[in-house]
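Re: [ENG-882] Designed sequences occasionally contain unexpected residues at chain ends

Forwarding the minimal case from QA. Structure tokens:
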């Protein structure tokens, strides 16, 4: 069940519709989403162009002893779920707990305020967190427009 909730919000935002598994879950649990006329069309025409997660000083763990935890594992699972290749993904990090994440994407970017170990393994370095490094990096790479 928990894995359903992990993917639910991003599935709606990225795919532009409620996935069948969550419709089934809602039905089985007597949950009714009130949809107005035209709501499904709005969802279908408005999936996001860019999906991101932001968190500070965190790490991902798993209770499954056959799998490793960590942000890199989490990124790999997201990429697999949405059928994206490693090369299609970028990640930003500044702490040593971000290193496996930066190595699990096509382009791992260290923040300007990152630990030296992080900068050494990064594909590129952007400005610091406090100087809006992610924004300016994405803008410089023409990944976002103003």
């Amino acid at each position: 069940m928990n894995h359903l909730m992990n993917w639910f919000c991003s599935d709606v935002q990225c795919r532009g519709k409620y996935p069948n598994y969550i419709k089934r879950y809602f039905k089985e649990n007597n949950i009714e989403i009130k949809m107005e006329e035209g709501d499904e069309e709005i969802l279908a025409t408005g999936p996001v162009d860019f999906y991101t997660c932001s968190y500070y000083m965190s790490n991902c763990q798993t209770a499954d002893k056959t799998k490793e935890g960590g942000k890199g594992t989490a990124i790999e699972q997201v990429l697999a779920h949405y059928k994206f290749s490693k090369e299609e993904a970028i990640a930003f990090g500044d702490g040593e707990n971000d290193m496996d994440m930066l190595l699990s994407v096509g382009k791992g970017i260290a923040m300007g305020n990152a630990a030296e170990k992080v900068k050494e393994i990064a594909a590129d370095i952007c400005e610091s967190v406090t100087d809006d490094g992610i924004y300016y990096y994405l803008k410089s790479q023409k990944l976002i427009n103003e």
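QA comment: On inspection the terminal residues look reasonable. Strands lie at 90-93, 107-110, 124-125. Proposing we downgrade this to a documentation issue.
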